[in-house]
Amino acid sequence: MIWIFYSHGITALIGPSGSGKTTYLRTLNRMHDMTANVKVEGEFLFHGKDIYSDSFDLVDLRKRIGMVFQQPTPFPFSIYENVAFGLRLGKKVPKRVLDQEVETALRQAGLWDEVKDRLNTNALGLSGGQQQRVSIARVLATKPDILLLDEPTSALDPISSRVVENSLLNLRDRYCLIIVTHNMQQAARISQRTAFFNEGRLVEIGKTRDIFLNPVEKETQDYVSGRFG
Ligand SMILES: Nc1ncnc2c1ncn2[C@@H]1O[C@H](COP(=O)(O)OP(=O)(O)O)[C@@H](O)[C@H]1O
Ligand SMILES: [Mg+2]
């Protein structure tokens, strides 16, 4: 089966708990490399090159395909240092450039206005939703093509969750976002394409509208109409 992610837009991965969404997502930037007894089959072509080929540099890969997790993961540093972190890896960047890139990433993550006057305060003092947007800004700072997000709002309260969702909506014209969510309303609100997983298999993928209103597979129909999961 060939599955294409377009360079812009949001693909939602939905399915019951334990259906393999996270496992699949993690194959897309080789997060399983460090896990024993894992066998990955198939190819993932990124700009025409299989990311599992030996010639792919892992650090470079993870800058270009970034990952955001369920729990916000700021480091116990300042907001500024969190976002600058990936930019500093392995090279010296002039302060002026760094300032600019940190600002751009925070703007894209929809957080700049809230934190611009306290960039040097500890990121751990922010609310959950703000911390999650710091995590997103940190990934954006390295200028990825793809953002992988594993239930990025499920640890947040509904208001913060909406704010983060809106930030993702603002990113979808510029980035390829692949987002695991167990919240079907969220998938319907933000994604253009949806993939339904069940029992470790990709059952069906298509336009979000079609998956919710007119799926091909009965299994998908049963899930989106709330018959299981
Ligand atoms: N295709 C697969 N082959 C083998 N094991 C799988 C596969 N997909 C998922 N699993 C296993 O099933 C469990 C749940 O998968 P996970 O990806 O965490 O589900 P989800 O994120 O949908 O809740 C994990 O222990 C994982 O190792
Ligand atoms: Mg999961």
Automatic annotation (TrEMBL):
<keyword id="KW-0067">ATP-binding</keyword>
<keyword id="KW-0813">Transport</keyword>
<dbReference type="Pfam" id="PF00005">
    <property type="entry name" value="ABC_tran"/>
</dbReference>
<dbReference type="InterPro" id="IPR003439">
    <property type="entry name" value="ABC_transporter-like_ATP-bd"/>
</dbReference>
<protein>
    <submittedName>
        <fullName>Phosphate ABC transporter ATP-binding protein</fullName>
    </submittedName>
</protein>
<dbReference type="InterPro" id="IPR017871">
    <property type="entry name" value="ABC_transporter-like_CS"/>
</dbReference>
<feature type="domain" description="ABC transporter">
    <location>
        <begin position="1"/>
        <end position="224"/>
    </location>
</feature>
<keyword id="KW-0547">Nucleotide-binding</keyword>
<dbReference type="InterPro" id="IPR003593">
    <property type="entry name" value="AAA+_ATPase"/>
</dbReference>
<dbReference type="InterPro" id="IPR005670">
    <property type="entry name" value="PstB-like"/>
</dbReference>
<dbReference type="InterPro" id="IPR027417">
    <property type="entry name" value="P-loop_NTPase"/>
</dbReference>
<dbReference type="GO" id="GO:0005524">
    <property type="term" value="F:ATP binding"/>
</dbReference>
<keyword id="KW-0592">Phosphate transport</keyword>
